[in-house]
């Protein structure tokens, strides 16, 4: 097929699983560096892929609070897992980023500003609905970040509708999944039904239509679409964790002196794991580096965390010098003041912070404790 006008946005097509490599190779041929999930260091993480064989075919994950392990599936699903420790933000906003560098030239310095697009255009292969929602949130937060915008504008997104929920997922509560709703070029639903293994593809953009036009696809029928819908619906029903967001932002803001902040602080190690794995946390610091001769200087932007004592360091010391204040800042920003800043919640319900917290602190349980009790002193509680 070659006439991409037949593949308009919103149309659905069927791709045999054995032809998934053709989609991958098409993106490579178009000049994209393909990034996707792969097995690495005992986890399923995101990294540049060489071929479709790098995908974690036949693997899944078992997750709970402070618990993660991989497990072999009984089928050969390419995307039969939920989320590993990494998120896509590290490719759109790297952990370390050179902002500018200066070299001595006589009695002056010549400054070279850096816009790091050296990696070329990226294609994200297998983006979950929650992670796509996180990218959309970052689009608002980082809309004035030149490097981020350059990478984002050239990004090709192959999304994936979830076929299984992880033990810590709660995207249904956050209205971010498990179905991909928007901001994708192509969205896949993997259907493994006995010996039949196919992908239902939804076209989300003109670029996506051009790609699908080159694939060995056929038009879906009503049975195909019903099976895809049943898979997504079943994933939503699997989720055990929930968080009622109705009035949550206001309740947290009104309970900043709640005694439960002290209780969670006794368990919190302030390690910052939750901020590192979170797909929307965006805090950074700036670091200047020079050579010993003083002829070359660089300014780098690197990831930071609101759990770090240095993050709020000012004259006289750190503004948030207790674990209580730092955890309160993180949770209240994520679920409350983020709404004031950007008009949406800063949490997408991916569950990574629950899985990768060394002591198993669960954001859904802590938010409920802060906002749903009968504490009244200086605050209020939501009606049960």
Textual characterization of the structure:
Helices cover 30% and strands 25% of the residues. The model is unreliable at 379-384 (pLDDT under 50). Helix 8 packs across helix 11 (323-342) and helix 9 (260-267) packs across helix 11 (323-342). The chain has helices spanning 20-29, 89-92, 129-141, 146-153, 171-174, 206-212, 222-238, 248-254, 260-267, 273-277, 323-342, 352-355, 363-372, and strands spanning 12-16, 33-40, 43-48, 59-64, 67-72, 96-105, 108-113, 122-127, 156-161, 186-193, 196-203, 218-219, 284-290, 296-303, 313-314, 317-318. Strands 3-2-8-9-10-11-1-12 form an 8-stranded mixed β-sheet, sandwiched between helices. It is α+β, with helices and mostly antiparallel strands and 384 residues long. It contains 13 helices and 16 strands.
């Amino acid at each position: 097929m070659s006439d991409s006008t037949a593949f308009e946005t919103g149309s659905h097509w069927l791709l045999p699983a054995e032809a998934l490599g053709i989609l991958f190779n098409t993106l490579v041929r178009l000049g994209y560096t393909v990034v996707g999930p792969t097995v690495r260091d005992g986890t399923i993480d995101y990294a540049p892929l060489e071929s479709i064989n790098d995908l974690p075919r036949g693997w899944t994950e078992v997750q709970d609070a402070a618990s993660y392990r991989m497990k072999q599936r009984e089928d050969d699903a390419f995307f039969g897992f939920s989320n590993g420790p990494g998120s896509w933000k590290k490719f759109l906003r790297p952990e370390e980023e050179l902002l500018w560098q200066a070299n001595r030239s006589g009695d002056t310095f010549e400054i070279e500003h850096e816009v790091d697009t050296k990696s070329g255009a990226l294609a994200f292969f297998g983006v979950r609905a929650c992670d796509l929602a996180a990218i959309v949130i970052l689009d608002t937060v980082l809309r004035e970040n030149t490097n981020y915008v350059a990478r984002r504008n050239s990004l090709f997104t192959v999304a994936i509708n979830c076929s299984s929920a992880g033990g810590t997922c709660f995207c249904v509560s956050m209205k971010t999944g498990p179905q991909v709703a928007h901001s994708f070029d192509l969205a896949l639903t993997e259907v493994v039904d006995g010996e039949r293994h196919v992908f239902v593809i939804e076209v989300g953009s003109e670029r996506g239509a051009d790609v699908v036009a080159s694939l060995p696809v056929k038009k879906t029928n009503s049975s195909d679409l019903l099976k895809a819908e049943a898979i997504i619906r079943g994933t939503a029903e699997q989720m055990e964790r929930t968080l009622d967001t109705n009035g949550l932002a206001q309740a947290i803001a009104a309970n900043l002196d709640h005694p439960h902040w002290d209780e969670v602080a006794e368990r919190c190690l302030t390690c910052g794991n939750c901020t590192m794995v979170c797909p929307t946390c965006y805090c950074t610091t700036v670091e200047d580096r020079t050579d010993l001769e003083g002829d070359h200087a660089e300014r780098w932007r690197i990831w930071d965390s609101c759990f770090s004592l240095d993050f709020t360091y000012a004259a006289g010391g750190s503004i948030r010098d207790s674990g209580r204040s730092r955890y309160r800042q993180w949770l209240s920003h994520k679920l409350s003041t983020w709404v004031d800043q950007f008009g949406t919640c800063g949490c997408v319900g991916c569950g990574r912070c629950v899985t990768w917290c060394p002591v198993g602190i669960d954001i859904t349980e802590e938010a409920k404790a802060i906002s749903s009790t009968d504490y009244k002193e200086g605050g209020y509680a939501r009606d049960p």
